[in-house]
Amino acid sequence: MARKNNHHKKNSTRRSSNGRRDLQSALASQRTYAILDYRLEKPQFTLRQVRAGDEIRYEVEGDLTAPVPPIRESKYLDKKQCIEIYRWMLLNRKMETALENLYKQGKVVGGVYFGLGQEACSCASAYALKPDEWLGPLIRNQGSLLVRGFSPRDIMMQYMAKAGSPTKGRDASSHFGDIQQHNVVAPISTLGDLIPVLAGVALGTRLQGRNIAVMTYIGDGGQSTGVTYEGLNFAAVQNLGLVLFVENNLWGYSTPADMQFRVKDLAERAIAYGIPSVIVDGTDACQVYDAAHEACERARRGEGPTLIEAKMMRMKGHAIHDAAEYVPKPLFEYWRKRDPIARFENYLLSKKWLSPAENRELIAGVDQQLEADRDFAVNSPLPSPDSAAGGTYCEPGCHEIKPKYGMPKVRRTPRPKLVREEAEVHLK
Ligand SMILES: Cc1ncc(C[n+]2csc(CCOP(=O)(O)OP(=O)(O)O)c2C)c(N)n1
Ligand SMILES: [Mg+2]
User: Which residues, by Cβ under 5 Å, contact ligand 2, an ion?
Assistant: First the structure.
């Protein structure tokens, strides 16, 4: 019996060692990919579509009772920078509240788009850029616009189509940029189109001798567009310094993320482009900043693009006209507890980087600034009718675009004598 057992053992050892070898060689030929994940919690719930007669509604399944995680300590931000980001987030939130009120008073032309719940993503990402770098925001990234140097009065005047607004009353909402001072490409409504445009900016600066970081955003819905693939693939192939934030706010209009794509994390899509990716909690300003900073540094070293998936929740409807009744209430409750501003405020207070009195002073300062800007915007004139046709067509000099960073780098390669010498621009 013992012998039999031994024999059996011997055989089974051989089998298992062969099995191990097979497994080892299988593993050796298997390709694995790593996705950094900075989150301190990984929400596990799904949305299910339920049909009740002619009505469709969504139900949320999963644990919604998990405690709110702490803010992750930043590897890079100091006290002063954290307070600055907190102030931008507050300004972002309170400016949008002011816009909502202006809309309700009938002073806004068109709709208003909100980034409620996404302030950490907008502000801490843009904060990682240097002044001479470039940003291409989406309509919800009004916080990014503030960080890049637009004032609340610019944004309010824009929404009210005032003569002094960035587009001089020609467009309401936030379709404006500034290629002279702020290095901001205007949001493009056709989703995904900002990506090749920003890749083009990075290519342009490289031709002028500089590797810089250029940052743009795409939503969980917008990232499925063909142009997203084309733009990001181009940036990857050309090693362009594009930092792409995929803002997974769980909704594209009224379609939940679970019904938009099959991958677990949108960061996985980076694997197919051959570029690195990171997942962050988009309601944690420190995580957003750290991932953005690391991606910007890669860009500056000429190492190419990075995809950052920021997970969070769109806390309002698509725009002011949308009451978001299709969103299950428990989902709002879950994310309300993860409010990016309240969490960052608590973090700063508990770290004693901000005293309650300093916090009150900071909040009062934001309120004062907004009141002054709102009054200025409300009292500023609408464009005069005779200005309507101005600025529509090119006027002499209005589109003169000078290289910002230096004359394009051109390398002349020696050619046989009889062949006309041509300048060869090297892209890589
Ligand atoms: C190419 C393209 N298709 C469709 C639309 C219409 N559209 C505007 S916003 C939107 C939903 C976008 O959802 P998401 O990308 O998740 O961004 P979010 O609104 O959540 O910030 C759609 C479908 C568009 N603007 N562009
Ligand atoms: Mg979305």
Answer: 219-220, 249, 251-252
pLDDT tens-place string over residues 63-101: 899 999 999 999 999 999 999 999 999 999 999 999 999
Model confidence, pTM: 0.90
335 within 8 A of 118, measured Cβ to Cβ: no
Closest CA to 345 of 364, 367, 366, 360: 360
For ligand 1, say whether the CB of 191 is within 6 Å of any of its atoms: yes
Which tokens sit at 318?
């698509």
Adjacent-strand bridge partners of 62? 45
Q: pLDDT for 137-175, tens place per residue?
A: 999 999 999 999 999 999 999 999 999 999 999 887 789
> For residue 354, what is the DSSP state?
S
Q: Is the CB–ligand 1 distance for residue 187 below 6 Å?
A: no
Report how far residue 408's alpha carbon sits from residue 419's, in angstroms, rounded to the nearest whole number.
Answer: 23
- DSSP lists the bridge partners of residue 110 as none
DSSP-derived letter for residue 421 is P
Whose CA is closest to 225, among 144, 138, 128, 155? 138
Other beta carbons within 10 angstroms of residue 341's beta carbon come to 20
Return d(Cα 316, Cα 64) in angstroms, integer.
Answer: 19
In the DSSP assignment, the letter for residue 304 is: -
Cα of 246 from ligand 2 centre, angstroms: 9
Contacts of 397 (CB under 8 A, 6+ apart): none
Residues 295 and 241: their CA atoms lie apart, in Å, by: 8
Tokens (6 digits) for 289: 């900043």
Pocket flag, ligand 1, residue 314 (CB < 6 Å): yes
